[in-house]
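Notebook, bench 3.
Goal today: get a predicted structure for Glycolate oxidase iron-sulfur subunit from Halalkalibacter okhensis so we can plan the truncation constructs. The sequence was checked against the plasmid map this morning, with no discrepancies at the termini. Length recorded as 429 residues. Pasting the sequence as submitted so the record is complete.
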Amino acid sequence: MTNLNELQKKIGYEYTFDCVQCGYCLPACPTYETMRKETHSPRGRINLVKMAAEGKLNLEEIRDPIDKCLGCRACQVVCPTGVEYGRILEGAKEVLSDNQQLSFSKRVAKNFIFNDLFPNPSRMNLLGNLMWFYQVSGFQNIVQNIKILKIAPLNLGKFEAIMPKITSPNQRQKRKVVVKAEGKKRIKVALFTGCIMDTMFYETNQNTINLLKKSGAEVVIPEKQTCCGALHSHAGDVSVAKNLARKNIEVFEKEEIDYVINNAGGCGAMLKEYDHLFENDPEWSGRAKRFVNQSKDISEVLYELDGLTLTKSVKDIVTYQPSCHLSNVQKVHDEPLKLLNSIPGIRYKEMKDYNGCCGSAGIYNIVNYQESMEILDSKMEKFKPTQATTIVTTNPGCLLQMKMGIKREKLEGRVRVVHLVDLLMEASE
């Protein structure tokens, strides 16, 4: 890209001037904590983007620092001058994606995963069915015993070992698209099911529906909803993310609802920023803002309704690993903790720097495995003093990452990781 004016507009150059290079972001940045490189800190990345936008650096010189950023946005929360780091990061990723030369095999793989798999509910459902068969047929045991996955690319064998139990096709087919509230209906909501949530964590989605129902909410599940677009946006494929956003806005605005509910911090953050995608689009700007105003994390709505009766004691020592995107983008802090502490029997122990990223960050732990594991190891060192037997999360990626941490620390059988929704359901049964 040779036109500097075009580059500066796309990369978010105007936002870089808000950074005064004070360094308040350094202690909050997980990659700076583990790598100790200025280029891998928020202020360092901002300076690199600024220099690239001014033609002083080749775009390839900023690729590694930008790719190694988790996008956790913790820096944005602590910044005293309100730097919109997220916009700078997404702009840089879009420019880098536009100028990336992929091999034929990588282009095919990326196109299949981003365009043909995640946005396609029927294919994601088929993937779920295949994963279920892989587990129940005994084939998983055979594969693990012969250790063939040790040679799998991208350390996929390590992630296969922590894969959750998949719900059977028959159970998934039984889900109703409208679930009536128990007792008097107080509100009507629509559930954003999510790609990964509905494939790998279907039971958590069901528990979300049941908790809402118990709280007095009628729940609808729009069948034509699609992927939130987070992975696409984070990879710089903004045009695809916009297309997915339009589809979801159209689907959900047809429902006469009070809220659009999500239970995955990363997906919810993307839904909450649909208005950023269309801020210069007169046709979609207003519609996106209305959608954003309706989007809520499950913890917000359950706390607002205050309709759960939690009678079953959960006698665990519990600590909480919040989703970065739930805390830093959706700005949801207190509700999960208040719901957690309302569960009878638990002993809550806060982790040091509990708001720090665990290193999952979408597919960061797959494409940047070593860096991700260094961040996870640091997180597990902070977890150990709590002596917790249960780690509660609010995002599927965080859940799997913390399961990986338990495995790496050889704590399997002594510590479990659960979604907040599942623990609340456990206490309400």
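Residues 310-428 form a domain with the Rossmann fold fold (CATH 3.40.50). The chain has a mean pLDDT of 95.
Flagging this for group meeting.
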